[in-house]
Amino acid sequence: MNARIFALLCILLPSFALAQGFAGLGTKADDFALPEKGYQFEFPKDHGPHNDFRIEWWYVTANLTAKDGTPYGIQWTLFRNALEPIAAEGWGLEQVYMGHAALTTPKAHYATERYARGGTGQAGALASELTAWIDDWTLTQNTISAAGPDFAFDLRIDVVGPLVFHGDQGYSVKSAEGQASHYYSAPFMKVDGTLHLPSGEVEVSGTAWLDREWSSQPLASDQTGWDWFSLSFDGGEKLMGFVLRGETDYTQATWINADGSTEPLGNGAFQATPLEWSETSGPEVPTRWAVMLPQKGIDIVVEALNPDAWLPLSIPYWEGPVSVSGSKSGRGYLEMTGY
Amino acid sequence: MFLEVSNLAKSYVTAQIRTDVLRDVSFGLEQGKSLALTGESGCGKSTLLHLIGGLDVADAGTILLDGLDVTGLNDKARAKLRRETVGVVFQQFNLIPSLTVGANLVFQARLNGRYDPDFAKLLALRLGIEGHLDKFPDQLSGGQQQRVAIARTLAAKPKLVLADEPTGNLDEGTAAEVLALMLGLVRDAGTTLLMVTHSQKIADQLDQSIKLSSGRIL
Amino acid sequence: MIRAVFSALLSHWLKSPLQAVALFGGLALATALWSGVQAINAEARQSYARAAATVSEGDYAQIRGALTLSDFVTLRRAGILVSPIVEGRLNGVRIIGVDVLTSPTLTAFPTENMNEIEGPAFYGTAEALALVQLAPEIGKVVVEGAAPNTVYADITLVADLLDRGTEIDRLIVLKDQPVGAASPEELGYKVTPAQAGTDLAKLTDSFHLNLTAFGLLSFAVGIFIVHSAIGLAFEQRKPMIRTLRAVGVPLQTLIGLMVAELVGLATVAGGIGVFLGYLVAAALLPDVAATLRGLYGASIEGTLSLSPIWWLGGVVVSIGGALIASLGVFLKLWQMPLLAAAQARNWQTNGPLRRLRRGAVILCALLGFGILFFGKGLVAGFVLLGALLIGAALLLPGVLSLVLSLGQRMASGVLSQWFWADTRQQASGLSLALSALLLAMAANVGVATMVSSFRVTFVQFLDQRLAPELYIYAETEDEAERIERFVEPLVDAVLPLVYQDTVVSGVPTEIYGAKNHSTYPDNWRLIQGSEDPWGQVARGAVLVNEQFARRTDQWTGTEIEIEGRTFVVAGVYGDYGNPIGQIVMTQAVFSEVYPDKRALRFGLRVDPDKVQNVSDALRDFGLSDDQIINQAAIKSLSKGIFEQTFVVTDALNILTLAVAGFAILMSLLTLATMRLPQLAPIWALGLTRNRLARFEILRALIFALITSAAAIPLGLILAWVLLAVVNVEAFGWKLPLYFFPLDYVKLVIEALIAAVLASLIPAMRLGKTSTSQMLKVFANER
């Protein structure tokens, strides 16, 4: 895909316009539904699409290791963007899906994207079980696969822990003004399978983390981007934390114990400071961070496996595997947008 | 009188300064005689020669050449005069560079219709250039070039030969040799000769001599 | 010191403004023509990179047939990247719906205008958009220079507008498929492979290469001017250089300053040149746009943008050109002894140069022959052209000298002998300018011949192919049958045009079933054929087009296999402008091979006087305007297109000739200072200055005449290379070469006029040279 298509999308899909903040997340909600505090999640229905919300995603990242010890990372993402808060069959542009897939090695980074209309069945998600797809890329409870011109992956999934709800029981506040989203995760997944690289196939195993989030206006208008961390520590605890960059930064975090119980941590508890910036195929971004969560005695350094994990797609951003050292060690994924 | 110059005047204007080159010059020359024009550099002797040869136009006065008033001629008639009546030997660059020595030698004669192959051959022999006829002028030495110019002029059988320092660019030995040849040939042909020279020694070899100074005859 | 020396050097230009003009003008003109042509080229390329994306869907493999949305989704879900297209006609306008989310050919949409509208919109020319009569609430984006009569939009809008529901006309198979993707065949879909060579860019490349060759040529001509001007300046500045060196300026400093001076000049001149080139391009662009649109259906926008890279490119070219042109002068300066005599004669010709030139001629000849026999591809064709032109330009001085010495030998009069000898001597000094004239003329002859041959061939081809007076189109097979029954009694003959796209011998090919009717043998000209080819076709043989014959190397007499049957090729016909293969068989055989295929198009043979009546009757019968096409209208449209081609080639022709004329003028002015010692003796011996001036003009005429005489055969060889080598490489067919003697005569006259005009100023100056200046030649003080 190229810049022209992106320009097209800006027209066809107003929510894509970058001028309105990253991925249009700061635009107004208009006729779309808004997240409500106290919303009761219902499964499997909430695994499926919420077409009356403007934006939604199924976001899987996995930290993998080959038999020879080489670390890898994969990303499988399906975005749903609604131009109208309805779903209809046919060629209509009410629901537009965008898929991103990436594979990161210590030396290389592959990424590709797909587009589809929701009404054709070319892309979508089921409300009857965890199943989402775009073209041949699929995510189910048991498998995850994607392919691009120069890479592919095909992994089995084994869910080994409960779903986790962020913020106030899944109501995740994104700004002091009250913008919010519905946000839950499945951070306890074991995966194994095959990576297809230009150099050949690699058998890998590791852990994966699914994020599900939907909203209609999750960012405040002054928020231009975020730095989002999903970290798994060697002791089995996990940490999700993000910094929303605006006139004043806004942070939220969820501490996840090994048994899946959570402790939400409000604005200011989670701190992330860039230590080192790197050149990428896009702009310069911080690839070494100091992360602090004093309440949990966390004082760690998070470092990118491959500093150039830039996705040069129609919506460009940085997403890649990281390693953790310091008061705790482990690994995870880092996402940086709006640079 | 074959050549009669009366009250001749000529001036040039350069850089808004008027320079009188010739002032009220009068003299005469009999047919078959030779006359030396001498004087300092810039005295006007070359200009006088040019006026007589129809190479330049006088401001005032008359030049009667064999009964023809040269001063009254237009461009075309002056060209005819140069072609048919006079022959000029300059100090240098007499020859047409694109033609062979042989072609140069007979050029003027063929131009005015007096071409006589035997005479031309004789001239070449006497001037010692018979071995160079197929060469081009720039392959000859200065002395050789002047010999060709003299031969070219005489081959055209002019009534009046005008020579402007013909040996001025040659070393002393060569100059004497070329001059002797020229004078001999002019005498043999009975041609009238007017020669510009700054050398009194050369002037002494001619029948008559006049000296110019600042555009006047002394 | 540097400042003082520099101002001394610069003072020369103030004293000799004409030289400054020549140097400056030469550089500016050369850069102007170069950058002008580049601008047209770049703009054209950029503009129809867009058009090509949609026009050249043939670039992609496609799946056709009765398809719907579910086929699209099935393929996509299987990992095969395809993109749907819905296509139709509305009020005579072609409407194309693409899936903006999956289409690989979206570059047809201009991004600049897109921010002005909200939501999906229709794109097309103002005319096309107006014709479709779309609802006002739907956005419309006028794209100047878009493909004529075509409107594009997202598939949502088009499917809706044409009421097509989930039907798809075809699926484009994307080029970059994901790792491990299945093939459409595995899912039971039949893929029509990409049509090799249908790429529009490839077609237009020929036109671009022509333009580029023109640009290079003009630049070369300009460099000749600069060379002359620099040579002259060098000659005249010799005494100054001598003095400067005598007072102690190091040679390196001097050369460094002169190079700096030249670079400065070239920068300014290059900048002016780019601006001039922009003006030239802007003036020509509407015609170029029309030409390209007409010839290839490619669109080009009628506006230019002057980008910084353009300025930079032009200036770099200018500086590079100036340095190349002055290389010889600087080398000479480097080697010049301190007290060199000024005005060494014939500074342009010396032994080493002549030997170098001879070597280059031989090299060019070897290269040319090598390519002719062993070369392949478009680039080889153009290298051959280059070798031909350069070789000829280098050979010209030799040819001139030969002809002139012949003239000298034939001359009997003393003056005519001198005239030829002097002309011959002049030739060396003018050889660069004359080479420029030779190149300009040869290119003009070549391009004119090519374009005109193209026109003659194409018009003949139109006459042969568009023999039926009327064409009608049916939407469905039922309608086709009804129309055929209705129209049969009204006309002399109904010729069904039935065809099938397929692949024969690995080449994408259309198979036509032709009715056994005299129209075909009467009008179709074969470029190769057996005896009675149409009789053979009637007995079951086939005819193939040249493209097919060339690509498969199957000519008359060979056997080809179509859908499992074997056919004998009875002949080959010229099929100009068609990118793919074509095979003609009789309708009877066709219906055996493709029993299900029915004709939807028909050609009608009608008495020309009755054409109007028949079309009226068809209209009354219920056919819409876009279903009836009058052959005469198509022909006049096609022929009109060629007139546009000529406007551009003519304009460029005159420009190059003008530049060549300028080169001659500058060379003559350069030589004029050296002429005086050559002419003064003749004047002294009794020729008037006016007569000498007339000789000078005559001399220029003779030079131009000899150069013309050499340029015409060279131009014809050039045309042959363009038509028989380059064209075959670029288009896949050979164009017959036609001669246009009147054009050549016109060109020679133009060249003679240019030469006379160029010699007029130096000749007039000679006529007015004062006697004292003439006499100075002989005087001591020189």
Describe the structure.
The complex is a heterotrimer of chains A (339), B (218) and C (782). Chain A has one helix at 3-12; strands at 55-66, 71-82, 95-104, 109-117, 123-125, 131-134, 137-140, 143-147, 152-159, 164-165, 171-173, 180-197, 200-215, 225-233, 238-245, 250-256, 262-265, 271-278, 285-293, 298-304, 310-311, 317-326, 330-336. Chain A is mainly beta and 339 residues long. In chain A, a hairpin with a 5-residue loop joins β21 (310-311) and β22 (317-326). Chain B has helices at 45-52, 75-84, 101-112, 117-127, 142-155, 172-189, 200-204, and strands spanning 3-14, 17-29, 34-39, 60-65, 68-69, 86-89, 160-164, 192-196, 208-213, 216-217. Chain C has 782 residues and is α+β, with helices and mostly antiparallel strands. Chain C is 62% helix and 13% strand. Chain C contains 21 helices and 18 strands. The relative contact order of chain C is 0.11. Chains in contact: A-C, B-C. Chain B binds chain C through residues 12, 46, 50, 55-57, 75-76, 79-84, 88, 90-99, 103, 106-108, 110-112, 138, 164-165, 168-169, and chain C through 345, 414-415, 417-418, 421-422, 424-425, 677-678, 680-691, 771-772, 774-775, 777-780, 782.
Q: Key features?
A:
heterotrimer; A: mainly beta; 10-stranded antiparallel beta sheet; 1 helix; 23 strands; C: 782 residues; alpha+beta; 10-stranded mixed beta sheet; elongated
The CATH architecture of chain A is Beta Barrel
Q: Please tell me how large the radius of gyration of chain A is.
A: 18 Å
The number of domains of chain A is 1
In terms of per-residue confidence, which ranges of chain C show pLDDT below 50 for 5 or more consecutive residues?
Answer: 50-56, 107-118, 195-203, 293-302, 341-349
SS summary, helix count of chain A: 1
Shape category of chain A: globular
Mean of residue pLDDT values of chain A: 88
- Give helix % range of chain A: under 10%
Uncertain spans of chain A = 1-28
SSE blueprint and pairings:
The complex is a heterotrimer of chains A (339), B (218) and C (782).
Chain A: H1 3-12, E1 55-66, E2 71-82, E3 95-104, E4 109-117, E5 123-125, E6 131-134, E7 137-140, E8 143-147, E9 152-159, E10 164-165, E11 171-173, E12 180-197, E13 200-215, E14 225-233, E15 238-245, E16 250-256, E17 262-265, E18 271-278, E19 285-293, E20 298-304, E21 310-311, E22 317-326, E23 330-336
Antiparallel strand pairs in A: 1-2, 1-13, 2-3, 3-4, 5-6, 6-7, 7-8, 8-9, 9-12, 10-12, 11-12, 12-13, 14-15, 14-23, 15-16, 16-17, 18-19, 19-20, 20-22, 21-22, 22-23
Chain B: E1 3-14, E2 17-29, E3 34-39, H1 45-52, E4 60-65, E5 68-69, H2 75-84, E6 86-89, H3 101-112, H4 117-127, H5 142-155, E7 160-164, H6 172-189, E8 192-196, H7 200-204, E9 208-213, E10 216-217
Parallel strand pairs in B: 3-8, 3-9, 6-7, 7-8
Antiparallel strand pairs in B: 1-2, 1-4, 4-5, 9-10
Helix pairs in contact in B: 3-5, 4-5, 5-6
Chain C: H1 2-15, H2 17-55, E1 61-68, H3 69-77, E2 82-90, E3 93-98, E4 121-124, H4 126-132, E5 139-142, E6 150-154, H5 155-161, E7 167-173, E8 191-192, H6 200-246, H7 251-296, H8 308-335, H9 351-374, H10 378-410, H11 414-465, E9 470-473, H12 477-487, E10 493-504, E11 507-514, H13 519-523, E12 526-529, H14 533-538, E13 542-545, H15 546-552, E14 559-562, E15 565-573, E16 581-586, H16 587-593, E17 601-605, H17 611-621, E18 628-630, H18 631-684, H19 689-731, H20 741-767, H21 771-776
Parallel strand pairs in C: 3-6, 4-5, 11-16, 13-15
Antiparallel strand pairs in C: 1-7, 1-8, 2-3, 2-7, 4-6, 9-17, 9-18, 10-11, 10-17, 12-15, 13-16, 14-15
